[in-house]
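Researcher: Let's do a round of design. I'm pasting the structure tokens now; please hold your answer until I've finished.
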């Protein structure tokens, strides 16, 4: 009953007219960003963070808008998958297998509508799971001491690449780079580290600048390199003839995919890519010879779409309750919370209950908004896909630069953002993932603080780090997180390549 009361309070926050308006704006922009091949939810949220600062939004409003962008981008990824056979993001890869054949058969509208309904069901299941599980996990997390938190952060780094990641060693390198950047500035004892006498570095590197540079600016550079010029041809979408029988046919697939996706989102290292893959493969096994997967089976669209949307909401559970992101996009949202002077973790449910439950309620409302947007307005998103990047680039660049300048009003931050953008471009060329860098930058200070605190308590005795059953369990899971990518990863990637004809995904 207590949870229900908090949820009602959350609806009071989410249904405020200005919050509802920004939820709608976020859902629309998110769907558009998700539909653009290659951008994905993490880039989309990173690009729009400066907009939140430029508009001077309240913390709960900013989180509601950007969470809606996240949810919208997960919805939008299916549009280019179905119409172009190009996944809008990696989790949408499995949707291509049956979505594109449906479009080729003149059933593009049906495929888009089915995928929207499945996305809605998957996200709804996961949001309900978030409501039920998050408070319990937050209460459990209150028993954590500094040693347990240190082990938890190690677990986050160990599972960062996910079991479907291509190169676990590059993930470790990226995390090390992030931790190195996190050491810049004045530490807890008042010692300057790597400031080089530069006043702007005394407070360390602003992770919002790093995020916008690494994600948004590097993406712009890739746009210039690969996609500058004309846009995509306008695609014809047939008149929708979806019947209730068609929706009833995909309901079991959507329910199964949503549950599996939620579990994949909550588990460290799994993510939306694995959620969509499991959702698809389970449907093939359940339906068996009765299905025609790979040839335009609607259940082959519903399963993975419910899976990846379920995983996106599931990934919010560890972020809100433990302060550890469950995906790349939640790492970006974590950075936003920290920049707003809000400490994610179990205490957030008491100290910032209005924000937590406002965001959760907004997710529920956003699901209905996205369903309404994605069925009747899909033609608009299709037309917007044809806008040439040469027109999109200046707008995105302007938002990024104005937003970053509005945070500190110094040109130094702009130069720093561009430098991070160039670095991000180089890292991506070298196939070094960006999310571990961000996570190292975010969690590094907290990790160091908890290590110092544990050492102070134990008078320098290192055994305190594995002195409790909980800490030992976290260390064991961290070890498994480092080993499993080498054992399970190649098998899963091989199966994904067989299924899609492409390389394996790395996560959302």
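Researcher: That's everything. Go ahead.
Model: Designed sequence:
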């Amino acid at each position: 009953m207590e949870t229900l009361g908090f949820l009602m309070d959350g609806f009071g926050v989410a249904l405020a007219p200005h919050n509802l308006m920004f939820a709608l704006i976020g859902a629309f922009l998110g769907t558009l960003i998700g539909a653009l091949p290659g951008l994905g939810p993490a880039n989309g949220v990173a690009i729009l963070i400066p907009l939140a600062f430029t508009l001077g939004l309240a913390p709960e409003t900013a989180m509601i808008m950007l969470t809606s962008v996240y949810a919208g981008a997960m919805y939008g990824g299916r549009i280019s998958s179905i119409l172009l056979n190009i996944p809008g993001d990696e989790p949408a890869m499995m949707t291509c297998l049956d979505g594109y054949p449906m479009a080729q058969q003149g059933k593009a509208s049906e495929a888009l509508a089915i995928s929207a309904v499945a996305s809605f069901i998957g996200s709804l299941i996961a949001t309900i799971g978030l409501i039920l599980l998050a408070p319990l996990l937050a209460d459990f997390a209150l028993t954590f001491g500094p040693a347990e938190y240190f082990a938890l952060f190690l677990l986050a780094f160990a599972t960062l690449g996910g079991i479907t990641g291509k190169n676990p060693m590059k993930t470790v390198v990226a995390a090390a780079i992030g931790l190195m950047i996190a050491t810049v500035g004045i530490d807890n004892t008042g010692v300057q580290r790597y400031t080089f006498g530069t006043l702007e570095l005394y407070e360390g590197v602003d992770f919002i600048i790093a995020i916008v540079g690494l994600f948004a600016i590097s993406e712009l550079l890739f746009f210039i390199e690969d996609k500058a010029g004309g846009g995509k041809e306008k695609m014809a979408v047939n008149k929708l003839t979806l019947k209730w029988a068609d929706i009833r046919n995909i309901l079991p697939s959507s329910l199964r995919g949503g549950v599996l996706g939620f579990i994949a989102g909550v588990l460290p290292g799994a993510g939306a890519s694995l959620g969509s893959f499991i959702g698809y493969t389970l449907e093939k096994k359940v339906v068996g010879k009765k299905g025609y997967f790979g040839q335009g089976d609607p259940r082959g669209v519903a399963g993975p779409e419910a899976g990846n949307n379920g995983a996106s909401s599931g990934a919010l559970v560890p972020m809100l309750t433990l302060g550890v992101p469950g995906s790349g996009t939640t790492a970006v949202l974590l950075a936003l919370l920290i920049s707003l002077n809000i400490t994610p973790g179990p205490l957030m449910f008491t100290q910032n209950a209005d924000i937590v439950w406002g965001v959760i309620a907004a997710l529920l409302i956003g699901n209905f908004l996205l369903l309404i947007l994605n069925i009747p307005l899909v033609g608009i998103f299709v037309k917007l896909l044809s806008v040439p990047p040469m027109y999109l680039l200046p707008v995105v660049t302007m938002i990024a630069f104005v937003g970053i300048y509005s945070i500190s009003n110094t040109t130094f931050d702009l130069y720093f953002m561009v430098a991070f953008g160039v670095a991000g471009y180089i890292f991506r060329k070298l196939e070094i993932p960006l999310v571990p860098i961000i996570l190292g930058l975010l969690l590094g200070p907290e990790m160091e603080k908890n290590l110092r605190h544990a050492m102070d308590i134990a008078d320098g005795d290192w055994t305190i780090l594995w002195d409790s059953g909980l800490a030992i369990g976290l260390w064991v899971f961290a070890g498994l997180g480092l080993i499993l990518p080498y054992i399970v990863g190649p098998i899963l990637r091989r199966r994904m390549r067989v299924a899609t004809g492409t390389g394996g995904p790395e996560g959302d």
